[in-house]
């Protein structure tokens, strides 16, 4: 018998947690419930799950801060995470996506929709690892060194700490400097298909990518925005930093 995928559910309302656990178990998953961030950190550290569902409004720690702490744990950066919140404000959704979350669903929600999103996220996060080719960095992108076997990218010798989606976007840009990628293309190639739940996630990840690149070279703008078209890697970056 195949092992069931463990789903960490961090939700302080027992009624909602019971519903989530029921639909996950019915769909073949193994849910693990924690009602506090402290308990979630312990459970995650003991055994990282296949995916984590995080309530934003926890009693002991903001869900966004919990996300960052989980990401910092061994193996945490590879675990997909979905935010669950009673707040439907767009700013909360954007904040979650900017942090690198895989999706966001607001209460009240359909339990079946939640399970469908869990399956979609797991499918998307698994496919790139199984199909990622090994290629040689493009000569024109000298400031960048791409290591596909380790899923790492260096920028002027500095190893960038990237989420898997930031890595996926930058990998495409680095491989074809000057080539314009539309948002739909990036969604299809990095997230393995577009979705209404990812309508702003490309812009959010580009924003965090730019911040990480600027921390290495503050005077350069390696990612160009072409209004109405998409994004491209600049072909005019100096091969070495002064």
Written account of the structure:
The protein is an alpha/beta fold. Helix content is 41%, strand content 17%. It has helices at residues 14-26, 37-46, 63-72, 90-99, 111-131, 164-175, 183-190, 201-216, and strands spanning 6-10, 30-34, 51-55, 81-85, 103-106, 144-147, 152-155, 158-159, 223-226, 230-233.
The largest beta-sheet arranges its strands as 2-1-3-4-5
Characterize the main sheet.
5 strands, parallel
How many distinct folded domains? 2
Please count the beta strands (DSSP E, at least 2 residues each).
Answer: 10
CATH topology assignment of the largest domain: Rossmann fold
Q: How many separate helices?
A: 8
CATH architecture classification of the largest domain = 3-Layer(aba) Sandwich
Question: What fraction strand?
Answer: 15-25%
Mean pLDDT: 84
Ends apart, CA distance between termini: 58 Å
Determine and state the CATH class of the largest domain: Alpha Beta
Return Rg in Å: 19 Å
Class computed from helices, strands and strand pairing: alpha/beta
List the helices and strands and how they pair.
Layout: E1 6-10, H1 14-26, E2 30-34, H2 37-46, E3 51-55, H3 63-72, E4 81-85, H4 90-99, E5 103-106, H5 111-131, E6 144-147, E7 152-155, E8 158-159, H6 164-175, H7 183-190, H8 201-216, E9 223-226, E10 230-233
Parallel strand pairs: 1-2, 1-3, 3-4, 4-5
Antiparallel strand pairs: 6-7, 7-8, 9-10
